[in-house]
Amino acid sequence: MNSNNTSCETLENKNLDEVPITPQEYNDILEIQNSILDMMASQAKTSNILSKLCLLAEKLLPNSVASVMIKNTKSGLLSVLSAPSIANIGHKTLENLKPGPHGGSCGNAVFHNEAQFVSDTFTDERWTDLRQIAYDFNLCACWSMPVRDENKSPIGTFALSSFEHRSPAAFHKKLLETAASLVNIVLKNEKNEKRLKLFSSAMQNANEGMLITDSNNKILEVNHAFEKIYGFKEQELLGKNPNIIASGKYDEKFYKQMWDQIEKTNTWNNEIINKRADGKEITQWLSITSLHNELNNKDNYLAVFTDLSELKHTQKLLEEAAYRDSLTKLFNKTQLEKVLKSKKIRTLLLLNINNFSYINTAYGFATGDKLLVKLAHIFKEKFGEKNIFRINADEFAILFDGQIDIKATVSKIQEHFYNTKIKLEKITLNVSFSYGAFCGNTHLLRNSAMALKEAKNNGKNNLYIYREDENNITDAYRKSFIESNNLLHTALMKDQIIPYFQGIRDNNTGLINKFEVLARIEKNGELISANKFIEPARLSGLLPEITKIMIDKSFKVMSENNYMFSINITEDDLSKYYLVDYLDAKSSEYNVDPSRLILEILEGVSASGKKDHITQLNMLKSRGYKLAIDDFGSEYSNFERVLELDIDFLKIDARYIKNLDTNSKSYEIARAIAYFAKNAKIPCIAEFVHNKAIQDIVLDLEIEFSQGFYFSEPKNKPTSVLTP
Fold it and tell me: Is the pTM of this model over 0.70?
């Protein structure tokens, strides 16, 4: 919980509940399910599992914190059970929360036993009793889903609290519903674990089956529980060897090893299958202990039998939940990864359903689910249940032993679905796939996924086979990318991303009084440039978070002067629809006039001209912000679009400036851009001016501004200077 009482950001609400859940979002939820259930199958601590669940949910809703609250069965009050991103003071503040109509989102969720979606905690009457908490911790929105027991009664909540006013999309509701269900499963599993811990002490209890033998291993005594378990009467057992209950499943070597261990350690414990009087097999935990007399001689042996039937049943259910897809009942991605750990030569074929999102949109998710179940049935019939996996929302995998004729196999699948229409009640569908495949003994899933991506890039219903000699990404590159990704996430968590400022020289006056804001990571005294972490940020969807940090921190610095400055804006920023409101809020907070800020957008953004992006850029222009095209000439220049947007500056791509004095082609391109800009009355900025020879040509081309190390290296504070 963030104690910084800054004003909330408001996200634009565009009927989010009507926005369909994408396959990727379904995949994100499936990944959470698999991760949590895998931890349960591995018997991780409940506290660690719930913390992991909260952290995974937070990743899917930036600028939020997740929490699990549990109801005290005696008092009926709610307290925090898990909230790894909320400080202890937040836990204490929410302790003993009383459910009720004014008790916040969680209090209402338990009180009404239904989900609560509060988009504005500052005004919503459901937060009347907790209004001060909303103000103190800047909780702007809070969505809460009740956690229910087997009787559908609320026992707690799973909630996402946001530092922005916003309403949940269908995806977020599904995320909350799934997380609440997982909390219930985790808590049930915890109860089972506590029961299992009691088995060790229960073995000494008379309720467990017990027998005592003499030194010759003849039965002397049995308890009533043993008679009941095995169906023998006491008189049928006394004087007999315990092998009367042997199932015949173990050989002489097994029993020799058992007795050798008893002789050495005086104990033996193991799971064993025995046979009842009626011939029915029973699985039990058997503990044998040698009993010594006062002369320390082995006179007797004590055997304690614990029934594992219920435990085995629970383990089976848990394993199925962890390793099977709940919808199709196929093995899931977790099971596939488990199978692939053995280094056998195999062929893996991935199949992605073409246009599955359109099927969901046109016919509804219920129809989409029925289609997936139908396809699972077809694949099981053709290839066998053990070889089929559902690994993503709209993606299946088929695993083959050894090397197969991939093209022939895919051709048969294509032919089958070309000639077969899928009938779902009154709906008839034609289904096709994109295929990615790889044969080998390592990295099958990764390489097949890369092949599938390539197949989809080549068009629908295509096959692409990954070949290591052609497609291999080096281990060094993968290691570098992972390190960069870790660096980025650590920097975001520890607030290590800072702005640096590089001067832009006015070639008419020689004065540097404009600056470009550049992102840097400051770690242990080392300064790391953006090219080390921008690509991981883009792939992780974190570019908008970096942009927000640059806006906030550069506005704070620039509030102390009157310089103009520029900030890079990406297509990801425009796709999030936050820029207009966020920039207005920061301009007001730091008293920075919008006319001082230049928003640098890549040439491709302006040229492609997505309607909603152009609308946002025009709105920003109307508020006084200036626009610049960055790296102009690097892509497909759309001169008409540049003029339509009323661009304020053109920045010539650095690749043409850095060799301007030695490369005639670079010179001609730079000259053409400068000529166009001059006629369009748009000032030009030459990037990467790093020596006098290049600057002389820039001046000769009458380019208005120069930027580069020749005049200014990036610094943590902007300083205006007059250059010669």
Answer: no
